[in-house]
Amino acid sequence: MSDHRSGVVRIEPGAGVVAEAHGERAGDLQHLVDMGLTCPVSVALSVERLHGIATGQRFDAAGVINEFGPDPLVSVLPSSGRRSWGGPREFPDVGLNEATHALLAARFGQEHADRRWFDFILRYATDVACLDAEPFDEAAAGSDPAGAALEIYLREAGEAFPQDPGRQLSQVVSSMATAWGGITARLLRHAQGAPLEAGLALLVQDNRWSVAPGEIATGRVRMFDPVTGQTRLNGSLRALTETGAPAPAEDIPTALQDRAPERVEALSALLDTARRGFRADREIDVAYEGGRFLVLDASPQASSARVALNNAMALVEADVITREEALLRVAPPSLTAFLHPQVQPDPARKPLFSGVAASPGGATGHVVFTADAAAARAAREEPCILVRRETNPEDIRGMHVAQAIVTERGGMTSHAAVIARGLGVPCITGASGVVISAETETMTLGDGRVLHEGDLITVDGTHGEAHMGEILMTPADDDPGFLEFMSWADAARDIGVRANADTPQDAALAMSFLADGIGLCRTEHMFFEPSRMVVMREMIFAGTEADRRAALDQLLPMQRSDFRELFATMAGLPVCIRLFDPPLHEFLPMDREGRMNLAQSLDLSLTEVNRRIEAISEFNPMLGMRGVRLGLMHPEIYEMQVRAIFEAAIEAGRAVGATVEPEIMIPLVAGRSEVKLVKTRIDSVAAQVRVATGQEVAYRLGVLVETPRAALCAGEIAEYAQLLSFGTNDLTQMTYGLSRDDVSRFMKAYVEQGALTGDPFEKLDFKGVGELIRIAADRGRATNPSIDLSICGEHGGDIDTIDFCRTGGFTYVSCSPYRVPIARLSAAQLAI
Ligand code: PEP
Ligand code: MG
């Protein structure tokens, strides 16, 4: 701190160690000093002068206060004003006493002077002398608040209010240091990631500009548009009239451009200096006096994703930062603001209930309890929120038309969560303390309140909270800068980002988010729409192979046309199609009505439907007849699918004039033999198609590694596969032995007890599940060094998973389409 007329003070928190200043303004204050932009009557307090303040020594500030000349009035600015950090607030008007009060009154009128005098006494009494605020409240209501406050001070503090500005400053600085160094404040900060011994910086600054009349004006200016983030000089200046009342604020540059263009120019130059010095844009508080601007403060703007993104791009344009730095300045999760509307935050608002933030975005609508009710509302163009105990494929059409989805059960990887993320619909799963009954059409909350059909609620899927009634929404930002920014991210990243896309519509979405391909097409999801569901169930319920083949004959053309569209939409980008993996419970009709419908559509009696459901129901459907087990027990199912894939690839290839080489992935494998058997059958279908069409059919074989055994046997499996894709949803479920559909019931309490650090379905467990993946990757590579590796479970879009995959040399990650931009930016940040 060479210049003693301006500077940042570092307070030593104890033990003789000088800590760095911390807080959101610390760097800014230091920069202002470094750039020579601080107002020249800010005062430096050297570290030596403040030595020991936090440990209780008194601070003689007389010398400091003298530097402000006669009748000083100063503000003390802390480097961190964040209350959540236990930081002291800015302390204005230090130096006010009987004499300065009289001066203020003479210049600005009695009322103005009295108000400030009272405010200062009150603040000093409570924050410095630690007096109770209550008696002062009564004084405020009286005829002479300041006089009464002085009397209360004398009575309560046992001494007269200090008149000496030096003593006031000394005490104020001490109290700010003490507030900062208290145990509660330290723990508060520590909980938010600050070092336990974080230091405080203070700037003592002349306060004259906030009070001086006439020629002096103060205001706030910036170089960026506060809504779009683009470069635009704006702000306002406000002078004080001779009576001390503020004159109307003058807009910059509009009001000044013609009258005083040189001031606009000076402000531009000043902001440009600050921009280059900070290597960022700041909101700058200025004072204008005697033909020049002085800087009082510079603070970062709490900004939206749009402002952050465009401002970072503007700084690149102005040659202040590089593209890489710009990419690092936008938090990947904040990109959801470009993709979904968001509920406007209000910390005071208490949620109706909360749960797992399963799919981001906000929506308001009327509560409905069934897919039919959702469809009926949609037909009347009324927004609705589909509320279910849990969802299954029967709910899909309701989920398509609902504005948001809430389920009582489930977690991050349950049916509702996966589908909602795919649709881009806000969703809360595992709503805590909530009991949902479709029978009585009620939703009973933890506190006993009951919601009924038609009640209006707002779902905040970004934060996993629901609120009563309609809440103001910030619309999704439609910003042209977004695409360009994302192209920078693509140039920087070194790992692929594909999308999990099940239908041609999903594929179109994946393309619009510039995914590098499809990493997982869950083929059974193509049958979630009602007319197709009937055929799918016919297939599942078929009692004989002949019946099953009849159903499969109907499914074949549907699959072929979907696959053809997928290939065509993806225009040559890789498409990884997973063969059927329908956990049966997702496809069985749950209630009587669903079973009746099924009986009608299959032309069976209800008794027969019930009997068949009984026959195929499983105690543990997630560990049952699904995935490759279904494929091996009923080979005709995979044969139909593989045929559809090959025929579609040939047709799409003809249309685009290039060879389409599909990736075919086998789910729920436990070892090499299953893969070998399925591969033999795929090859045989390939030969049949080749003979029938005269066309060569090439494909790449993928194995979904989602059982612990498959991970351990990856070396053998890799003999047959060109791709190992880790299904981290099932792999987590099976490694922990923890049901992915029921986990929310106790996960929160379990984490609170410290039994787990977090929900492993939300954040990949790198220690256990990650170890299995590492082992599998090593063993797979040892057999087949060119094998592609990827993750396609719901963890795929998370930055820590991407980091893990990059480190392991994986080819790509795959996530739901709406998470693709977030994953692209995360990947870029990791590569920089
Ligand atoms: C997985 O288990 O991670 C996976 C991708 O498959 P699904 O979520 O469909 O079971
Ligand atoms: Mg799975």
UniProtKB/TrEMBL annotation:
It is an enzyme of class 2 (transferase). Its cofactor is Mg(2+). It comes from the Bacteria. Keywords: ATP-binding, Kinase, Magnesium, Metal-binding, Nucleotide-binding, Pyruvate, Transferase. Substrate binds at R522, R578, E706, G727, T728, N729, D730. GO terms for molecular function: ATP binding; kinase activity; metal ion binding; pyruvate, phosphate dikinase activity. PANTHER family: PHOSPHOENOLPYRUVATE DIKINASE-RELATED (PTHR22931), PYRUVATE, PHOSPHATE DIKINASE 1, CHLOROPLASTIC (PTHR22931:SF9). Catalyzes the reversible phosphorylation of pyruvate and phosphate. Belongs to the PEP-utilizing enzyme family. This is Pyruvate, phosphate dikinase.
